[in-house]
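Priority: medium. Attachment 1 of 2:
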């Protein structure tokens, strides 16, 4: 374990290098402990956002979502204008979804849509739709998936994911013909031999049996 020294910029710099070495070696348990000690030392303010971001990422990777969200919120609270803050806000919403807190995730994510472009926008829009679907609010989910289909940014795969999401909503309602239509749309857009197309074909066969 790292010794604890009084707040000191010199010690903080040395401890940060050690923490980074743990991180690069994927020794995340020791990296987390080292970064926590760095935060408690005399770390210059300009370096704190990166450390908080790494702590959030480590705990997210370990599926310790409450801790990860805590560090991400600290980053946003202390450094709202830092370039890492918007990434932290996305992560907060996505982690709330991943831990099943869908009601909390949606209001965290919706305001971000006006701030984002590309894959980040599509990730947030898709996660909002998934939250509604997983809460059983299929009308709202269908609406949010459609927004993604018609306004998708970044990778075209988001469109395929949205069609699959809509098919799952129709399946839950027992509306298999509509579910099949969504899957056929995937085959038209991506090709029947693509990964998406083959998965759609498997689901179509399942709905038809």
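Attachment 2 of 2:
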């Amino acid at each position: 374990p790292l010794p604890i020294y009084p707040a000191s910029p010199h010690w903080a710099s040395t401890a940060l290098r050690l923490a980074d070495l743990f991180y690069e070696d994927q020794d995340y348990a020791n990296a987390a402990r080292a970064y926590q000690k760095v935060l408690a030392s005399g770390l210059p303010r300009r370096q704190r956002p990166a450390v908080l971001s790494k702590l959030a990422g480590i705990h997210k990777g370990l599926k310790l979502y409450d801790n990860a969200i805590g560090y991400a919120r600290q980053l946003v609270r202390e450094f709202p204008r830092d370039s890492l803050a918007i990434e932290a806000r996305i992560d907060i919403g996505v982690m709330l979804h991943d831990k099943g807190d869908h009601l909390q995730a949606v209001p965290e994510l919706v305001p971000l849509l006006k701030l984002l472009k590309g894959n980040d926008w599509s990730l947030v829009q898709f996660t909002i739709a998934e939250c509604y679907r997983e809460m059983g609010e299929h009308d709202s989910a269908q609406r949010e998936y459609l927004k993604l289909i018609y306004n998708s940014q970044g990778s075209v795969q988001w469109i395929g994911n949205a069609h699959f999401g809509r098919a799952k909503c129709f399946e839950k309602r027992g509306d298999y013909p509509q579910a099949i239509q969504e899957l056929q749309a995937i085959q038209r857009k991506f090709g029947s031999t693509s990964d998406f197309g083959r998965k759609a074909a498997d689901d179509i066969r399942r709905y038809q049996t």
